[in-house]
Amino acid sequence: MSEALVVGIVRQAIETAVIVTAPMLAAGLVAGVLVSVFQTVTSIQDNVLAFIPRAAAIFVAFAVTFPWMLRVVSAFSAGLIQRLPELVR
């Protein structure tokens, strides 16, 4: 197996990981910004207030996008398994 092939597979794996995690990261970012603006406006500085909405937004994004994430990761894995005989040579 050549180095270029390994680098290509690792690049695809990283791209897949970034694409799959992007919706949850975006939801956490939006929730974090909104909570920060709310805390700044109301002068409430509570760590729990900052954590719980972010965690809830990430969980909701995960629940909504899970079927899509499963399809993307399964397609990547199936493609990798199908290419396994050529990778072993």
Outline the biggest β-sheet.
Answer: none
C-alpha termini separation: 6 Å
Structural class based on helices, strands and sheet pairing: mainly alpha
Beta strand %:
under 5%
Structural features, described:
With 89 residues, this protein is mainly α. The protein has one domain. It has 3 helices and no strands. Helix 1 packs antiparallel against helix 2. The longest helix has 40 residues, at 3-42. The chain starts with a helix and ends with a helix. The model has no long low-confidence stretch (mean pLDDT 92).
Spell out the blueprint of helices and strands:
Layout (H helix, E strand, L loop, with lengths): L2 H40 L4 H36 L1 H5 L1
Helix pairs in contact: 1-2
Quick tags:
mainly alpha, 89 residues, 91% helix, single chain
Short recap of the structure:
The chain has 89 residues and is mostly helical. It is built from 3 helices and no strands.
